[in-house]
Amino acid sequence: MLPLDDPRWLSLDHRNWSKGQGGPFVPDELRHLLAHPTDSERFDDLWPFLCSEGTAWPAAYAAAPYLVTIARGLPPAQRDDYLYVVGLMAMCSGEYGETPADLPGDIADAYRLALPEVLTLLAETLAAAEHDQISTRYLLAAVAALKGHPEYAEILNDLDIYAECQSCGEPMLELPE
């Protein structure tokens, strides 16, 4: 893992962050989450800066091993969001384990090494904890991405969009509101 005090974090862009400016400083957020892993509000504020809108930014790949570490320390019922976000990174990356070409090799390697454990934690989480339909869908999307099926993962992830007939607009699946 890239140490949280490594100066390279300043050069790892994320949403609204460029050349050390804008948005949260990811290592500070990760330090907080390592100390307070159940602070879902803080995590909810952070993750869209790492991966959203179909993009996993370079800082996401460096953060992923920390997210896995945090998830590993939580009971299955409390780790969904951390695991889903790593799965979302895989969805946004294209092929399994793919990273941006200019990402430093040690960061890419640490990201790739974290992925198999996410699958193990996801399986345990799905089996051990109660999930509503939406949470189950997102966790299954993460599983699909981590099994190397990003297209299928995107369909599951965006099922609310695909749940309507594209011709007539009628619901094809009842999704909870």
Q: Keywords for this structure?
A:
2% strand; 8 helices; globular; single chain; 177 residues; two-stranded antiparallel ribbon; mainly alpha
Structure description:
With 177 residues, the protein is an all-alpha fold. The protein is built from eight helices and two strands; from the N terminus they run H-H-E-E-H-H-H-H-H-H. A two-stranded antiparallel ribbon has the order 1-2. A hairpin with a 2-residue loop joins strand 1 (51-52) and strand 2. Helix 4 crosses helix 5 (105-128). The radius of gyration is 16 Å and the shape is globular. The termini are far apart.
Distance between the termini: 39 Å
Order of helices and strands: HHEEHHHHHH
Counting H and I runs of at least 4 residues, what is the number of helices?
A: 8
The largest sheet, given as strand count, sense and whether it forms a barrel, is: 2 strands, antiparallel
Described by its quaternary structure, the protein is single chain
Helix content range of the residues, please?
55-70%
Regions with little confidence, pLDDT below 50 for 5+ residues: none
Portion of residues in beta strands equals under 5%
Give the averaged pLDDT, no decimals.
Answer: 88
Q: Please state the CA-atom Rg, rounded to the nearest Å.
A: 16 Å
What is the 3D shape?
globular
